[in-house]
Amino acid sequence: MTTSTAPAATSVIPPVLAEVVRSGFVEGHHRGSLVVLAADGSVELALGDVASPVFPRSSNKPMQAAAVLRAGLELSGERLALAAASHSGEGFQLDLVRKMLSEHGLTEDDLQTPPDLPLDPVEAEAYLAAGQVRARVTMNCSGKHAAMIAACGLNGWDTGSYLDPAHPLQRLVLECVERAAGEKVTAVGTDGCGAPLMAISLVGLARAFRYFVTADEGSPERRVADAMRAHPEYVAGTRRPDTWLMREVPGALSKMGAEAVQAMALPDGRALAFKIDDGAGRALGPVLARALGLLGVDGDVVARIGDAPLLGGPVKVGEIRATF
User: Fold this and answer.
1) Section 242-271 average pLDDT
2) Of 180, 172, 321, 194, nearest to 263 (Cα)?
3) What's the CA gap between 36 and 45, in Å, rounded?
4) How far is it, in rounded angstroms, from Cα 276 to Cα 116?
5) Strand, coil or helix: 67
6) Can you tell me whether residue 280 is helix, strand or coil?
7) Does 124 have pLDDT greater than 70?
8) How far is CA 184 from the centre of its chain?
9) Is 319 exposed, middle or buried (CB count within 10 Å of its CB: 0-12, 13-18, 19+)?
């Protein structure tokens, strides 16, 4: 395994996956790479470079949650969903993070997440209006970190160095990523929350999500998938596409990541993963909606996810739309 600060560069120029259209004029493009897997795991569609490594960012969180289960930590329901979350910082989510910490004899000071505002802009505005300041518990990865520290305490592992890639817990995370992706991790970096970040290909990422939804009942991977799908509001938030998708499409498992990464799997094993090359999150929804359409998923939730209007004052004057 090679340790580096970034995945290996590729010479492939990604295709345009979305375009920015204002007043009938195409003013910008978002390039990226996307893969769609058939139910048997074979590649059904590949756009761009889907074989080179990328950092999945928070799309790796289901694998990290599976690792804490494999470390022996007993989590279920909302707590397990929150261990795999990029939560919005809504009150019910923060309350459960604090409760998880207390249940394991921990405090917010034990978290090594960077102090941050709630991820959701609505929550951030309300938080600031209430006179609150950036806090470790408010950072969107605090549920994951609470679970990681608790797993370390259970095993007698050092909790001060739980973010070190050489730590026993992080070595277990790497094993879980490689098992689910069916390929070796080719680079290890540091995520925005400070946790080690494992690079895999987009094919490997889609394969990992397929692995979770098709795993045997009771296995760590299936337990994570089932918890996320049963409690999607803890995985993302009430105003987030991952929540909408898992709530409204039966059996769907969905998780976005920073720098415009998205992975999703359906219960029959069909799956997809993509990354927008410039990291523009505004292109996620239109590209995801189009990819869902290719998988035969439709309905109001897909239209809602794909809706990315451009405004001229209060009036819609354009949109970001998928091009494939």
Assistant:
1) 98
2) 180
3) 5
4) 25
5) helix
6) coil
7) yes
8) 20
9) middle
How far apart, in whole angstroms, are the C-alpha atoms of residue 88 and residue 95?
A: 12
Query: Confidence class of residue 12 from pLDDT cuts 50, 70 and 90?
Result: confident
Helix ranges restricted to H, the chain:
61-70, 77-83, 91-103, 121-129, 142-155, 168-181, 202-214, 220-230, 232-235, 241-248, 284-294, 300-306
| pLDDT of the residue at 3 | 47
For residue 220 the two structure tokens come to 């760590």
Predicted local confidence at residue 103, as pLDDT? 97
Alpha-carbon torsion, ordered 118, 120, 121, 122, to 10 deg: -100
Using the predicted structure, report yes or no on whether residue 1 has a pLDDT greater than 90: no
Euclidean distance between CA atoms 283 and 103, whole angstroms: 39
Q: How far is CA 59 from CA 18, 123, 318, in A?
A: 21, 22, 30
Going by C-alpha positions, the residue among 234, 226, 266 that lies closest to residue 249 is 266
Q: Are 241 and 305 in contact (CB under 8 A)?
A: yes
With DSSP H G I counted as helix, E B as strand and the rest as coil, what are the percentages for the chain, rounded to 5? Answer: 40, 20, 40
In sequence order, the 6+-apart residues with CB closer than 8 A to the CB of 301 are 244, 245, 248, 249
pLDDT at 7: 52
Question: Which H helix or E strand runs over 316?
Answer: strand 315-322
Q: Which pLDDT score is estimated for 258?
A: 98
**Residue type for position 269:** G
Average pLDDT, the chain: 96
Above 50 in pLDDT, residue 152?
A: yes
- Region 38-55 average pLDDT: 98
End-to-end Cα, the chain, rounded Å: 35
Looking at residue 2, what is its pLDDT? 42
